[in-house]
Amino acid sequence: MTKIKIVIMALLLVGFITGIGCTKADVANAGNEDKLTWSEDFATTAELAKEKNLPILVNFTGSDWCGWCFKLRDEVFATDEFAEYAEKNLVLFKADFPKNIAQTDELKAQNRSLMQKYGVRGFPTIVLLKSDGTLIAQTGYQQGGATKYIEHLNSLLSKE
To answer: Which residues contact 21 (CB under 8 A, 6 or more apart)?
Structure first.
């Protein structure tokens, strides 16, 4: 066997071994996990928002297929700056519409209902709500990273 064939086979073997157990979502999210804790139970989220007297940030996302959702996650949600801001200023809820991640029928129904209620037509859509579920504002991906996104959210929240 030539050296080139040996190198190619070794690379293929390493690629195969490191790929075992990975889903498409794992590959898409590799190294880019956000630092946030997202609730997926809206009733619990609303109760927590009332207790803390904080607005709810609802992230309507296609977490395993939506390119703009990946950009928002990577540029904003995956940063320490946004994690610190969110901890003090928001209660986080994710309404996910994945293609390759299993969800219960109940979770799918909840997310579809919220999507209809708030008129969401695409991903990512970020909805800011008062703790009682009243709409404050709706937005999406914004260029500029975490600092700009925090400024953008603050401007939306200041209008309530």
So the answer is: none
Distances in Å between the alpha carbon of 63 and those of 45, 102, 114?
19, 12, 17
Residue type, 44: T
Is 55 within 8 Å of 20 (Cβ atoms)? no
Three-state DSSP state, 117: helix
State how far the Cα of 99 lies from the Cα of 151, in Å rounded to an integer.
32
Q: What is the pLDDT of residues 129-154, one digit of tens each?
A: 999 999 999 999 999 999 999 999 99
Measure the CA–CA gap between 39 and 34, rounded to whole angstroms.
Answer: 14
Q: Contact, 32 vs 71, CB < 8 A?
A: no
Beta 135-139 vs 125-129: how paired, if at all?
A: antiparallel
Q: What is the pTM of this model?
A: 0.80
Residue 7 reports pLDDT greater than 80: no
Give the C-alpha separation, 138 to 118, whole Å.
Answer: 9
Report the relative pairing of strands 91-96 and 56-61 from DSSP bridges: parallel
Helix (H, G, I), strand (E, B) or coil at 30: coil
